[in-house]
Amino acid sequence: MNHPSERIVRAVRRRISHAGKRLAFGLLIASLSAHALGGPSGRERFVRIVLPGGAAITAELAITVEERARGLMFRDNIAPDQGMLFVFEEPDLHGFWMKNTRIPLDMLWLDSDKRIVHIERDVPPCVAEPCPTYVTRIPARYVLELKGGSAEARGLKLYDRLEFILPFRLK
Length: 171
Fold this sequence. Notes:
There is one protein chain. This protein is an alpha+beta fold and 171 residues long. The protein folds into 2 domains: 33 residues; 112 residues, Protein of unknown function DUF192 (Jelly Rolls), CATH 2.60.120.1140. It has 4 helices and 8 strands; from the N terminus they run ααββαββββββα. The chain has a 6-stranded mixed β-sheet. α1 runs antiparallel to α2. The longest helix has 19 residues. It is globular. The two termini are 35 Å apart.
């Protein structure tokens, strides 16, 4: 067992309780396999989101814990017709911060019906820690990040419904 992934598997097995061992091992193997295979294909990494009025944007998907943690960090620009859609398994009070994010963003929290339940507009990059956390008071299943000012420019408001079909199935 000299390969780094084998050492990781061995370390994980030692640290996880017996009850959670099978689940954690399966998740680790799935994660290592996806990484080794390059993850989902390019087409599955993006989704077309239709806004009220018919305009559309292309959103990069953030599905895994790692993708959601990285978000739009270290990016210098985002086009007005692009965004990032964070997908969660369950609705909850998902918090976001702007650590290592270089551009102002609009953040839109969407419920399971894809209706906007909260908007944070023109959230500035975090220049010093601790970075503020932005969170909704209403459970959300998705969060859409857009270039700062896009929500206002497109007339997006609370309870607007966005249309999109994910290229995979959620619970």
